[in-house]
Design brief:
Order of helices and strands: HEHEEEEEEHEHHEEEEHH
Helix content: 25-40%
Structural class: alpha+beta
Radius of gyration: 36 Å
Shape: elongated
Number of strands: 12
Number of helices: 7
Strand content: 35-45%
């Protein structure tokens, strides 16, 4: 059976378009929706803090050793340093500003560019060992309790609790809560805190303690080494509102407390908080992050849904046209055409004769 050439062309184009839709959806989309190599987000927080005053501590000025209710700003920059296939080396730099005091802290992780979880680094790359989520949520975050989060302060991986849905910055969000507690292991943080104190200095701080702790510490001072070794514990509570489409944490609050401890009579006694930070993302940063999420969501819709759908529809239309046009037009019978012409030529004359 003969098939029209145009039908063959339409069929071939249709098959190519359908194949292109499949390639875009199943090959290009997974690559295009990974953590971009160009990622560089700067987020600002504001709040208050309790801070240790090293100068007052050194001078024995107990009234000024701890500064409470200090207004602070916190700058966080998350950026991709390099990519290696599906692995990204990500820097998470946080700097606390309190007046003229700055407390910088930077961590570098290797993360899977698809699910954003910590992974093994490429050979030669030095990163912090971690597991679970480290910097943000993946694209299309899940509305459940399946995530785990790496707390850099205690170097522990803890569960992430799903708290339901809400909105922030005009974007629909999934809300999560994270809590972590344990001994401080972050070397960057420990470097800003004294590892020990002279007995005399520690004794001068006793009036700052609650009565029960003061009663336990004061009699034991004579039995402690000089200087007295210090350890620290931290408790952290984070709430995050992650965009339902992109996973960007549009709004977030951080509440972290670091408490100093001493070993007394074979047990560890927690004394006073030496660092407490309570900060939330500023309104300007919420607006900025919501804009980022909106732009990313539009691009995701184009790549994941619109482009494959358009290609598929055009391909199906082309195939249908090919099927409808597959048979060539049937030529007329020459004898029939001649007879029709003859009838047309003699008809009027015959009728005139009949009238006459």
């Amino acid at each position: 059976m003969r098939i029209r050439r145009s039908s063959i062309v339409f069929g071939a184009v249709g098959i190519v378009l359908i194949a292109a839709a499949a390639v875009v959806r199943f090959a290009i989309v997974p690559v295009a929706t990974r953590l971009p190599a160009s990622t560089d987000l700067v987020i600002h927080y504001a709040g208050k803090a309790t801070l240790l005053n090293p100068a007052a501590l050194a001078s024995g000025d107990t009234a000024k050793v701890l500064q409470s209710g200090v207004p602070i700003t916190l700058d966080r920059r998350t950026r991709v340093l390099s990519t290696h296939g599906n692995t990204a080396i990500v820097s998470d730099a946080i700097t606390v500003h309190a007046g003229s005091t700055t407390l910088p802290n930077t961590h570098v992780y290797a993360v899977n560019r698809s699910n954003l979880e910590a992974t093994r680094p490429p050979n030669g790359q030095k990163v912090e060992p971690a597991s679970g989520l480290t910097v943000t949520f993946p694209i299309g975050p899940k509305a459940n309790n399946s995530y785990r989060y790496y707390d850099a302060t205690t170097e522990r991986t803890v569960p992430v609790a799903y708290k339901g849905s809400s909105s922030s910055g005009g974007r629909g969000t999934h809300d999560y809560a994270i809590t972590a507690a344990g001994p401080v292991k972050d070397k960057n943080l420990l470097s800003t805190l004294p590892a020990s104190l002279p007995k005399k200095t520690l004794a001068s701080l006793a009036p700052l303690l609650p009565a029960n702790l003061r009663a336990a510490l004061t009699p034991a001072l004579s039995t402690l080494p000089d200087p007295v070794p210090l350890t620290y514990t931290a408790s952290t509570a984070i709430t995050a509102q992650a965009d339902k489409t992109t996973g960007i944490a549009i709004n977030e609050s951080i509440n972290e407390t670091v408490t100093v401890q001493v070993a007394v009579g074979g047990r560890t006694v927690s004394l006073v908080p030496v660092l407490a930070i309570n900060a939330s993302v500023t309104p300007d940063s919420i607006h900025y992050l919501a804009g980022k999420a909106k732009s990313a969501a539009r691009l995701l819709f184009l790549v994941k849904t619109l482009a494959p759908l358009v290609l598929l529809i055009l391909g199906l239309v082309a195939v249908v046209v090919a099927i409808l046009r597959r048979k060539p037009a049937t030529p007329e019978d020459p004898g029939s055409a001649q007879q029709t012409g003859a009838n047309a030529a003699t008809g009027p004359a015959d009728r005139s004769q009949e009238v006459g």
